[in-house]
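dumping the sequnces here before i forget
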Amino acid sequence: MSKEEVVLLDFWASPFCGRVRIALAEKGVEYQNREEDVLGSKSELLLNSNPIHKKVPVLLHNGKPVCESTVIVNYIDEAWPSRPLLPTCPYERARARFWGDFIDKKIFEGGTKIWSSKGEALEVGKKDFIEILKQLEGTLGEKDFFCGDNFGFVDILLIPLTTWFYAYEKFGGFKVEDECPKFSVWVKRCMQRESVAKALPEPEKVYEAVLMLRKMNGIE
Amino acid sequence: MAEEVKLFRTWSSPFALRIVWALKIKGIEYETIFEDLSDKSPSLLQYNPAHKKIPVLVHSGKPIAESYVILEYIDETWKETPLLPEDPYERAMARFWAKFGDDKVLTSIVWGVFIKEGKEQEEAMVEAMKNLWFLEEELRGKKFFGGERIGFVDLALGWLANLINILEDVAGQKIVDEDKFPLLSAWMKDFANSPIIKDNWPPRVQMIAKFRALRDAKLAAAASSK
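..and the predicted 3d for all of it:
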């Protein structure tokens, strides 16, 4: 049996990389983690593995690169089929993929509007962001996790993005717990999982990184 | 038991067309409901409250939205003539290229080159050409993006095979030059003339009118904001 080589081109603060770290941990896959200097100079390996986007995360499985975090999480689920991350029924899988896509389209971009704006634009950004979280709260309902009793695909796509929420709260002057209490309960539930707790950075550290990003973009 | 399949679409949406192709390629019978996006039906709002967009597939009363989500659902539910490959790595590549098609190729061509003019258009062309070149390279050694026969990525990028020519006519700007992109040009012809695909293009005259109106509106808006 040949030994499989799994390498993750990573960046500590990236929620997209966080998704991959969690998925690999959930599947019990051993891998080598290579931290990339994304704001400085990117490695040859990264530029060769992801020539189109030149971004992290990149998963290298026996040398073959997979790019785009949602594509990678799907790949991990299919390449290591035990402990499935998606439901078995096609309709439930479609629902999971739909909400995964919703999260991909709305959360990070919505949050960016908060930390990179001021005044009226910031207020609009904050209002829109809370509305998005309320929609997610609605789809979560009374369930423990987005697809039911088991932590899975949708939770993995969303939970790392919440490490940036502290920064949004500081700049936006609001608290997610006050606006969306059920959502906060789900966050705490996910953070109790070892795979999640070990994979994600401290929100306070992310806040410091966002402060630096604001400075770099000329926002006071 | 007859399964009821309904597709909510518009006459022109390239995203909805992907679903038409997939259903017909798999020989699935379905009912079409055409939507007027300026006056959305209560059914559409009920079936896709999050985005209120088409396409929406309704299978035995259960709605699915987002074209790539629908394609994967169709592929998993009706297993004949598979759209996605079996191998996990090949599936990942297909999903990657489909995403690239919408995020980069479509965006840089329609919302970049097509709705601009002058120097702004020239700059947008650089980005669009870069993206098209990646597609050209991906076709090397293959007839279709799916290999010997049409697959997921061909359906995802299929809009190119019909819309590019329309955009070029309206904007008076060559986008896919046969000399620069021989493989992509050949693929566009092969795909456009493939069985099923060739019978389902939207009417050209209406498409020209629609996209002319879009370009005029966007250019006017840009001019008035200067």
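Chain B has nine helices and four strands.
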